[in-house]
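Please, is this right?
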Amino acid sequence: MTDQKADNISSIPIDAFSNLRITSIWTFLMSVQWSEPWLIGLLVFHVVCLSLTVVTCRYYRAQICHFLLMIGMVYSAEYLNEMAAMNWRSFSNFQYFDSKGMFISLVFSIPLLLNTVIIVMVWVYRTFSTMTELKTLQLKRKARRENREKND
């Protein structure tokens, strides 16, 4: 039993620069060298996307375009991962782009999907607010109509 456990532990990969055993998403993210310029650019990109999500809350058409653009980027993440895996030496010090796409999913797709979830939540809130206003107006109109009928 202990030999089997030792074999399992030795099969867990060790990252390239910090010699941490990657056993969870957290250790995986901690093993990334976040000081690389392209990763800093990616973080700035996500901050800009979140800012656009917040700013476009009042502009429905702009928010639809922003939503569709982010969904398109998530859809193309697989192709982006393949291209990055072939050309990683030109922009990175380490090969982060695995065949299963875990890295690109964690640092690219999940933040974009969180932005799209925020947008959908705003849309649902707006829909409920509009439905509430509509029902209130209907009840007021019905009450006015009943008052007119009583007075006549």
Summary: The first helix runs from residue 2 to 10. The chain is about 75% helix and 0% strand. The CA atoms of residues 42 and 107 lie 8 Å apart. Residues 4-14 have pLDDT under 50 and may be disordered.
